[in-house]
Specification:
The complex is a heterodimer of chains A (433) and B (130). Chain A has 433 residues and is α/β, with parallel strands linked by helices. In chain A, 37% of the residues lie in helices and 15% in strands. The longest helix of chain A has 37 residues. Classes of the chains: A alpha/beta (433), B alpha+beta (130). Chains A and B meet through loops of A and loops of B.
């Protein structure tokens, strides 16, 4: 090969790299291992993971039961190995799955149209904000501080070079957005009110009131939903007046996987259809009158409209959208509602038990789905070793995200937690707090 | 192709017809043929103002989305609401029922900078030859 490209030796090939930059000794790497040795080595690494922890972590990635049918179905090669269909019409199965996903997202959010999915909840919200700016032709956004801190970070990254201004509105004592402060800040420059519901603290936002406020100022209401399972019991945002509803569908059959990959969704009113970013699959009939599926309204997209496209997202998160689609199909309306009710019931049980501990304080008492914030009498770090010893992760310490909530923990209670699990947590909290 | 003599034209393929000091604006027969079947027209709101050459509308065909530029500066007095339900009017009757907006011109002298129907016909012929 060296001869083919016209050099004498390997040294000649790297002659262009100055001598002082070149490595003179061999790389500091262990010697090669045989396959069985390698497998043993990685098993020993894997053994360092704790798999027997009882975790009440939520905060945007939730621990829900995943029906085994999902893995079995998505493992089919037709789904598992296919990429976004560029030769679209021959990929009818993929297109139908995406079409069903869109239909389900519309049914869950109560809005008219959904795109083919986004990367995750945070990018879905960032795109929703860009979309609202295009629709309103205004640049300012009033963003609840109770929107997931990482969603806000992604939104800031997107907004920074788009000349968009994000103004944070603090929560009221109950946990939902401070409507008085919000009302004072609203004006003709505001593109949209942006909230998350259930918000980062687990509380529900008064969406109908917020929609009324936004619309009075010709602004939009953008709602992010990080816990999609809440749709099973909480009134959908669409009929409450939300204009764009986006979020994260991880709760619908997708493993936590250290925080991703997951799948985002983005839905809106039909009037905003042409401002919706990303792929969109439509239903049609072929020349023989048979039902079929096609990518539609592609003229909004980057591969056709170039720099004037609604977004540079030219793909979707198909496999994970399929997982959410299978989850919803398996459980059905009644099943999703049943799981959601279990989440509420377990959270309420946990809350009633936690409130028996006098040193703990419920931080945000407003209505909630499956998460709550408690204030400890001491910083969490002070009692963390006790929890490590007991193999319990009680929740997320909020200090890193909200300095004023220094002693607060965010806890999540899903259907995967038994009464005994909750009792174990409460008992330990009672003994150390 | 038809390029009516009572209109003036831009090199971006818009036409302007002045009626009672109001500029009626649309896209030319050449433009609609290049676009193909028009499926959606996004129009501005009454009261919006535009500078010369500013994008004031978008035309979506089955092939592409194209921007439509304001031939003269002015304020939108009226938009063709019929295009919402019947975007194909742009294909069927681009100089008549397929008009886009009526503008109150900021400076009618700007019209002098535009092409007359003969100059435009020549421009289209040259552009097509390239």
């Amino acid at each position: 090969m060296l001869r083919e490209i016209g050099v004498e030796s390997l040294e000649d090939l790297f002659a262009g790299i100055p001598a002082e930059l070149r490595l003179k000794s061999p790389l500091n790497l262990p010697t090669a291992l045989s396959e069985p040795e390698l497998v043993e080595k990685f098993k020993s690494y894997a053994g360092k993971n704790s798999s027997d922890l009882l975790s009440f972590l939520g905060a945007g990635v939730n621990d829900h039961y995943i029906p085994t049918a999902i893995d079995a179905l998505i493992s089919r090669g037709e789904f598992l190995t296919s990429y976004t269909p560029y030769q679209a019409e021959i990929a009818q199965g993929t297109l139908q799955a995406v079409f069903e996903f869109q239909t389900l997202m519309c049914q869950l959010t109560g809005l008219d149209v959904s795109n083919a999915s986004m990367y995750d909840g945070s990018t879905a919200l960032a795109e929703a904000v860009l979309m609202a700016a295009r629709i309103s032709q205004r640049r300012r956004f009033l963003v609840a501080a109770s929107v997931h801190p990482e969603y806000r970070a992604v939104m800031n990254t997107y907004a920074r070079h788009q000349d968009l201004a994000l103004t944070e509105i603090a929560p009221a004592e109950c946990g939902s957005i401070d409507v008085v402060a919000l009302d004072q800040r609203l004006g003709a420059d505001v593109s949209a009110i942006v909230v998350q519901s259930p918000n980062f603290f687990g509380n529900l936002e008064p969406l109908a009131d917020l929609a009324g406020l936004a619309h009075r100022h010709n602004a939009l209401l953008v709602v992010a939903v990080a816990e999609a399972l809440s749709f099973g019991i909480v009134n959908p945002p669409g009929p409450a007046g939300a204009d764009i509803v986006c979020g994260e569908a991880q709760s619908l059959g997708i493993p936590a996987s250290f925080g991703g990959p997951h799948v985002g969704f983005l839905t809106c009113r039909e009037t905003f259809l042409r401002n919706l970013p990303g792929r969109l699959i439509g239903q049609t009939v072929d020349t023989e009158g048979n039902r079929g599926f096609v990518p539609t309204l592609s003229t909004r997209e980057q591969h056709i409209r170039r720099e004037k496209a609604t977004s540079n997202i030219c793909t979707n998160q198909s496999l994970f959208a399929l997982m959410a689609t299978i989850y919803c199909s398996l459980l059905g309306k009644k099943g999703i509602r049943e799981v959601a009710i279990q989440n509420v019931a377990k959270t309420q049980y946990a809350l009633s038990e936690l409130q028996k501990i006098s040193s703990l304080k419920l931080r945000f008492p407003g209505p909630r789905f499956n998460e709550l914030v408690i204030e400890l009498p001491v910083p969490y770090e002070a009692i963390a070793p006790k929890f490590q010893e007991a193999k319990i992760i009680p929740g997320l310490a909020l200090k890193a995200y909200y300095p004023h909530l220094a002693n607060c923990l965010l806890l999540s209670f899903t259907e995967t937690k038994s009464k005994a699990d909750i009792d174990r947590l409460v008992q330990l909290l009672g003994s150390v707090a | 192709m038809k390029f009516p003599a009572d209109c003036v034209y831009t090199r971006e393929h818009e036409w302007v017809r002045v009626q009672d000091n109001v500029a009626v604006v649309g896209i030319t027969e050449h433009a609609q043929k290049e676009l193909g079947d028009v499926v959606f027209v996004e129009l501005p709101k009454v009261g919006d103002t535009f500078d010369t050459n500013e994008t004031f509308a978008n035309v979506e065909s089955v092939k592409a989305v194209s921007e439509v530029f304001s031939p003269v500066a002015g304020e939108v007095l009226e938009v063709n609401d019929a295009l919402a339900a019947s975007p194909q009017l742009v294909n069927d009757d681009c100089y008549g029922d397929g008009w886009f907006v009526k503008l109150k011109m900021s400076d009618a002298r700007e019209l002098k900078d535009l092409l007359n129907h003969e100059e435009y016909a020549e421009f289209v012929a040259e552009e097509s030859a390239e």
